[in-house]
Amino acid sequence: MTTRRWGKVLPISAFVIAAGLYGVWTPDLDRAELLHRYGAASQRVLEVDGLRVNYQDSGPPDAPALLLLHGFGSSLQTWDTWSPQLASKFRVIRLDLPGFGLTGESPSKNYSDSQDLTTLIHFVNKLELTTYSIVGHSLGGKMAWALAAEQPERVKALVLMAPDGFAPEAQWGTKPYEVPAIMGLMKYCLPKYFVRSLIDTAFSDPQVLTEQMVNRYHDMLRAPGVRAAILDRADQTIYTDPKPRLKRIQAPTLLIWGANDQMIPSSNAASYAAVLQQSSTVVLPNLGHVIQEEQPEIGLAQVDAFLSTYLLTSPGAP
Length: 318
Description:
Blueprint (H helix, E strand, L loop, with lengths): L2 H17 L11 H7 L6 E5 L2 E8 L6 E5 L12 H5 L4 E5 L17 H14 L5 E6 L1 H12 L4 E7 L30 H9 L10 H11 L4 H11 L6 H4 L6 E6 L9 H6 L5 E6 L6 H4 L1 H16 L7
Parallel strand pairs: 3-4, 3-5, 5-6, 6-7, 7-8
Antiparallel strand pairs: 1-2, 2-4
């Protein structure tokens, strides 16, 4: 999911949640239970800036390293279909970002862009990655391009999937995801039908959305502290001018969108392409916001070809 969608839906849905509060108390799920449901054997934990960052590390350890950064309200499981194929060629590192999944809430409750960037830099440093590439989706896309701008000499290739963060100039300095106080109820009440209504809009064809997907999103939103972290992040998000940072990116960049994305429209690709030093754009027909889950093989073919070109066949590839 994307924060922009939450910003639109939450005020509309406040009445629905309030009206349905009786009898739908939804406490956090136990971390051990979530590990049991979603892959305890392959999970690792790394202490970073007071966070216990939950991640998976697969593929040849000496292959080019590839970070996978998920979107708002999601978790590392969004890459379940892509990860095995990518791990046949790359060292694939996917993590639950601060405030999400089994990484959970930050002890400092700081979800600013600068803190996200610091945490990711400390994460890759602790993994001793000299160079790496990034695939980022939505909110994770914003983090990906911010990281590539901060460390242009280390990021070798960049894939931005419907990335957030390129707002019109009139919105710079504003809080795009501010939510009404009543939405604090989501910490105690989170009906599954509300989660389904959010995810529905991320798909071009909602019939592709399975009960298993809805259960996973619902479960991960009920990971310890995640709902409070989401509200904190929404309150702390402020739009800024992205262009000076985007101009610092040296990595070849693939901009990839679903043509029917209702959350962050594919027309945004032109804004990025006008600023980035080296980019190509792919818009996939009949797909929505979450291309890695709606028809995963279509987006994966594009991403795999791009990464293989720049990381496996280019002279001097790491």
